[in-house]
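okkk here we go again. third time trying to get the magnesium ion bound version out, last two times i messed up the smiles copy paste (missing a bracket lol). double checked this time i swear
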Amino acid sequence: MSTLLEIRDLTVGVGEKIILRGLDLTINAGETHVLMGQNGTGKSTLASAIMGNPAYTVRSGSILFEGEDITNETADKRARRGLFLSFQNPEEVPGITLENFMRTAKSAVTGEKPRVMQFRKDMNAAMDKLNMPQGYASRELNVGFSGGEKKKAEILQLLLLNPKLAILDEADSGLDVDAIRIVSDGVRRYRNEGNALLIITHNAKLVEELTVDYVHVLDQKKISLTGSAELITRITEGGFAGLGDNKADKGGASASREAQ
Ligand SMILES: Nc1ncnc2c1ncn2[C@@H]1O[C@H](COP(=O)(O)OP(=O)(O)OP(=O)(O)O)[C@@H](O)[C@H]1O
Ligand SMILES: [Mg+2]
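finally!!
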């Protein structure tokens, strides 16, 4: 089993504020991880730090991808290595069509321009899978898209870019039940033994039909608890408060460090 992502003792800040402290996380190829946690605990911050968003400063610790230290690498280099993040709040980009954006993203990541006809064919096929009318290809990226349509455009990117590690930040928020199924189906088609997923969600529905290997809870600036898929049911039914003292039991070294 090859390790894709290895985060060691990571401390991340925005300006003066420390958001993550002493966080450890390892993701191997072939695994699906779910990250949960109360609002504002730092889940999106972790995703941004992994992707190299310069607004988030790594104060200490390291991020390795396929064994190489990428802690100080630019976001576009990380994207070329095969890291992908679907945003919680995708931006509207006037003046660029969805199709042009996708083609530009593909050529930025692979280093070669995709052939126009083949790319259009691939894109149409992916749009069909996501139940997106093909007219959307010529619309400006996310401009006037509904919340759910923006999320589908993110999953379309996932299918076309085919990254090694995909981080989905609340890909399901604002989606109706049918759209959640379509997105979940798209995510399932993407996953294979050579790649991996980190899914940030508040909603068990998205991951219901996926095989989840690990569930992590982010609390007190780090991963405070890791368990199997049944942890999602426990959280859904009993809330984060219902996890009680277990968090301290399984937090390991970083939990005791935090307590000091
Ligand atoms: N650019 C920023 N400037 C200032 N504070 C920030 C910034 N980004 C994040 N924060 C703060 O860091 C904390 C963690 O935010 P983050 O968005 O990572 O939480 P989250 O776990 O993703 O929450 P949610 O479940 O609501 O999406 C919050 O208190 C937030 O206000
Ligand atoms: Mg968030």
